[in-house]
Amino acid sequence: MDSGDEQDLTESQRKKKRYHRHTPRQIQELEAMFKMCPHPDEKQRMQLSRDLGLEPRQIKFWFQNRRTQMKARPEIERPMMEQLATHAMQELIRLAQTDEPFWTRVGGDEREVLNLEMYDRIFPRPVQQLRSPDAHVEASRDSGDVIMNSLVLVDMFMESSPVVPSREFCFLRYCQQFEPGLWAIADVSIDFAKDTQLPPCVKSRLPSGCLIREMSNGYSKIVWVEHMEIEEKKQTHQLYHDLVDSGVAFGAHRWVATLQRMCERIACLMVTGNSPGDLFLLKWDVLSYGKGVVEITRIGSGQNPGNCISLFRVRNYIMSNESMFILQESCTDSSGSLVVYASVDYTSVNIAMSGEDPSYIPLLPSGFVILPDGRPGTGSFASSSSKPMGGSSGSILTVAFQIMVSSLPSAKLNLESVATVNHLIGATVQHIKTAMGTSDT
Question: Which parts of the sequence belong to the START domain (predicted)?
C-alpha cells in the first residue's frame, strides 16, 4: 500500500469517525427542546450538550438541520394535510351527529360506545392502514354544557391550551365553522417518524374531537368523540388495568367533565372572594405535623363547594422562627377527585401576594387522587368499545409525597428514610379510607 492509499484511508476513517447516529433518547430530548425553542441560545445548547453527551457543535448542527426540514415541509405536505384534515372533519361530524348504527348504549348508566363492526364497514381503511391485531381500541362519546362562550372555547382549543387531559400524540387539529354559533374541532394523528428519526408511534388518534354549539345563556353545548388505537408496548400495572382498559382514564366522559370543571374554574376566578375560617385539616395531613390550621383565605374554583384554592397557616409551628403555611387546591367532578398541597414559607407568600413572578417559589407538591377503578358496577363513568363497561364498582386511591430529606447535593437515600416514607404512605392511605368511611377490604 503506497502513501497515497494510506492518506485516502486516513481521510475515510476521519469521515467515518465524524458520523454519529443519535440515540432515540437524544432525539426525543432534542425534539422536545425544539418544540419549546427552535432557536436555542449558546447557554441552552451547552446545557443540552452536557445532558445528552453530545458536542455543542453537534447540537448546533442538529437544530440547523431541523429548522431546514421544517421550512421545506409545509409546501410538500400541505396538500396531504389538508386532505387528511377534511376527511377527519367529515368523519367526526358524522360520528358526533349520528346515533345508530354507530353508537350503542351499554351498562347501568347507558354510556355510548362505538360499534366497531359498523364503523369499519362505513369507514374502510386502505390495506396498509389496517388495524394491528395487538391494538386496543378505545372509542366513546359524551356531551355536556360548558360555562363558556363558544368563540372563547374555540380560541382555547386552537391555542392548544392545556385545559383537558391528553395522551401524547402528534396530531393535526382542524377547526371549521358550519353555521353561526356551531363549530367543529377535529383531531387526527399524523406520523412524522421518518423526519424525526423516532420509532413509529404505537398510539394513533383516529378522527376525534368535539362539536361546540353556542347557547343563549352564554354556555356552550359540547358533544365529544374520542377514538384511539393503542398498542401497548409496556404492560399497564395490574391495579390500573381496568381503569385504562375500560375507557374511563382517557374516554370522552373525562374530557367533557374536565373541560366543564376547568371552565368553571376560569369563570369563578374572575370573581374572587375570601372566606377565612378556623378549621382543622383532616387526619390524613402530614405537613401540619398534627397541629391545627387556620384558613386565611379561600378562592372558589367551581360550583362544587369543595372546588377551591386555600391558604392555611399552621398553628403553634415551633420548628423555625418563620410561620408555616400550606397552599392547597381541591377539586372534584364526575371523573374523579384530587387534593394537591404544598408547604410555603412567609417569604414565598409575600412574593405571591405582591404580584411578583411565582415561578421562582420552590414547591414540593404532595396529595392524592381518587378515580373509579373501571370495574363493572353501577357508577356513571365512561366505557370503551373494546371492553364495554357501564360503570365502576369501586375506587383507586393514589397518594404521592415529595419531602425534602436533605438539601446537600452529596446526600444519599438511606434505608431509614425509605422505611419512614413507606410507613407514612401506608398510614396516610389508611387515614383517608377511615375519613371516607370505607372498609379495610
Answer: 74-268
> Running DSSP on this structure, what letter comes out for residue 198?
P
The interaxial angle of helices 24-36 and 56-97, nearest 10 deg, is 70
CA 301 – CA 331 distance, rounded (Å): 8
Q: How high is the pLDDT of residue 255?
A: 87
Residue at which a domain ends, from 249, 268, 287: 268
Angle CA 411–416–421, to nearest 5? 95
CA torsion sign for 180, 154, 331, 372 is positive
Domain identity same for 246 and 191: yes
Helix extents (H) in 213-295: 238-245, 252-269
Q: What is the pTM of this model?
A: 0.63
Separation CA 154–CA 192 (nearest Å): 26
Q: Alpha-carbon torsion 375, 379, 381, 387, what sign?
A: positive
**Residue 284, CA distances (Å) to 240, 280, 320 in order:** 23, 11, 23
CATH number, domain at 39? Answer: 1.10.10.60
- Give yes or no: residues 50 and 90 share one domain: no
Q: Is-contact 146 219, C-beta < 8 A?
A: yes
- Name the residue among 104, 147, 113 with its Cα closest to residue 381: 113
Tens of pLDDT along 369-415?
888 887 766 444 433 434 433 455 678 888 888 877 777 777 777 78
DSSP string spanning 204-232? Answer: EE-SEEEEEEE-TTS-EEEEEEEEEEE--
Predicted pLDDT at 316? 65
Three-state SS annotation for 94-151? HHHHCCCCCEEEECCCCEEEECHHHHHHHCCCCHHHCCCCCCEEEEEEEEEEECCCHH
Using CB atoms within 10 A of its CB, is residue 346 exposed (0-12), middle (13-18) or buried (19+)? middle
Q: How far apart are the C-alpha atoms of 37 and 110, rounded to whole Å?
A: 46
Compute φ and ψ for 98, nearest 5 degrees: -110, 130
Domain count, the chain: 3
Neighbours of 407 (CB within 10 A): 6
User: How many other C-beta atoms are found inside a 10 Å radius of the C-beta of residue 361?
Assistant: 16
**Judgement on whether residues 142 and 205 belong to the same structural domain of the protein:** yes
CA distances from 439 to 128, 144, 211, 397, 435 (A): 52, 34, 42, 13, 11
Angle, helices 42-52 vs 24-36, to 10°: value is 160
Tell me the HSE value of 269 on the side-chain side, using a 13 A CA sphere. Answer: 11
